[in-house]
Specification:
The protein is globular. The chain is 20% helix and 36% strand. The protein is of the alpha+beta class. It has helices spanning 18-28, 36-44, 96-110; strands spanning 3-8, 49-55, 58-72, 75-87, 115-119, 132-133, 138-141, 147-150, 155-159, 170-171.
């Protein structure tokens, strides 16, 4: 059966797909259980775009796209932040995450957004999607509401247009996703 891509602003907690998406996210991110979908939105806000992959009646992939103005050095830049990238356990290592990321990049490029960043538990997974390790000193708001600044070893960037990623301090102007 062919995969179906569903593009929405956010997955409504009451919608018919919410139970499957929540189960998928809880499996991928057990620290957020028992309700990763609701908890994620509570921490980070509603994404600009949510991407789902369905195979028949089953949700097999999820990715949240946030568009945010951040500061890089002295400039303010609109970037994409990717979060909650998850695939069904039995479908991992089949290219579904790469497919979701490709669609996210196409969405961001259509908006003329030059960069995408993500924060990965396993950075090597994202190398094949064009991500490179980010060495920037990063300021962000932590879960406790406090501002933190450091170089996060799982942070990665992808250049989506002709702009070159600057190795300057960045301020996410909010939480990491």
């Amino acid at each position: 059966m062919a995969l179906e891509l569903i593009k929405a602003r956010a997955i409504e907690v009451a919608c018919e797909l919410a139970t499957e998406v929540t189960a998928l996210l809880n499996d991928a991110f057990p620290d957020g259980a028992p309700d990763e979908l609701r908890n994620y939105y509570a921490r980070h806000g509603i994404p600009t775009t949510s991407l789902l992959l369905k195979d028949g009646s089953s949700v097999v992939g999820h990715l949240a796209v946030y568009e945010r103005h951040i500061r890089i050095g002295g400039d303010t830049v609109l970037i994409g932040l990717l979060g909650e990238i998850a695939t069904a356990t039995d479908r991992r290592r089949t290219g579904l995450a790469r497919l979701l990321i490709r669609h996210a990049h196409e969405h961001l490029q259509a908006q003329s957004i030059p960069f995408s960043i993500l924060f990965a538990f396993e950075p090597r997974i994202y190398l094949s999607s064009g991500y490179q390790p980010m060495q920037n000193q990063t300021t962000f708001i932590d879960a406790d509401g406090q501002s933190r600044t450091f170089v996060f070893r799982g942070s990665m960037y992808a250049e989506l247009l002709a702009d070159v990623w600057p190795n300057l301090p960045i301020d996410l102007c909010g939480t990491a996703v």
